[in-house]
């Protein structure tokens, strides 16, 4: 079965960190099987609190990640561009979505469900391990960034209150 005309090329997919290290046959299967969603600016991929079992790879466009505070104030916490992926937490921990993700510009995203990942596990344990390791590396990188931001916020708060006292 040929890939859809708007499907990413194998080279394009291989450049995306989630798929780094995968063999050509695995990439070909992803190109042929994984659906591509088209989004217009303002369209929501998923909302904070929803259940989900998919991750999304941004092929084109720009996305924003927003969270609501306890007072229902919305804050942007991240932005994604081509080659980034999001939604992986719902595949790993089966908890509700931790944030809302929406398109800022016309976008195309590749959708990978938990069942797609489980099918990969059954067919090719090595490829499955590579994908999971790639997810773990990105989550570790994001945690380091969040830790640095939190440390800066705490230092700024401490400095602000020490000047007042």
Can you tell me about this structure?
The structure is a single chain. The strands form 2 sheets. Strands 1-8-3-6 form a 4-stranded antiparallel beta sheet. It has a 4-stranded antiparallel beta sheet with strand order 2-7-4-5, with no helix packed on it. The longest helix is centred in the C-terminal third of the chain and has 40 residues, at 125-164. It has helices spanning 10-14, 24-33, 88-93, 114-123, 125-164, and strands at residues 36-39, 44-46, 54-60, 63-68, 74-80, 85-86, 100-103, 107-113. It starts with 9 loop residues before the first helix and ends with a helix. The chain contains 5 helices and 8 strands. The chain is 43% helix and 24% strand. Helix 4 packs across helix 5. It has one domain (10-164): Jelly Rolls (Sandwich). It is globular, with a radius of gyration of 18 Å. Strand 4 and strand 5 form a beta hairpin. It has 165 residues and is α+β, with helices and mostly antiparallel strands.
H/E element order: HHEEEEEEHEEHH
Give the number of domains. Answer: 1
Overall shape: globular
Largest β sheet strand count, sense and barrel closure: 4 strands, antiparallel
Strand order, main sheet: write it out.
1-8-3-6
What is the SS-derived class?
alpha+beta
CATH superfamily: Jelly Rolls
CATH architecture: Sandwich
Report the total helices.
Answer: 5
Helix content: 40-55%
Q: N-to-C terminal Cα separation, in Å?
A: 70 Å
Number of DSSP E strands:
8
Mean pLDDT: 90
Oligomer, anyone? single chain
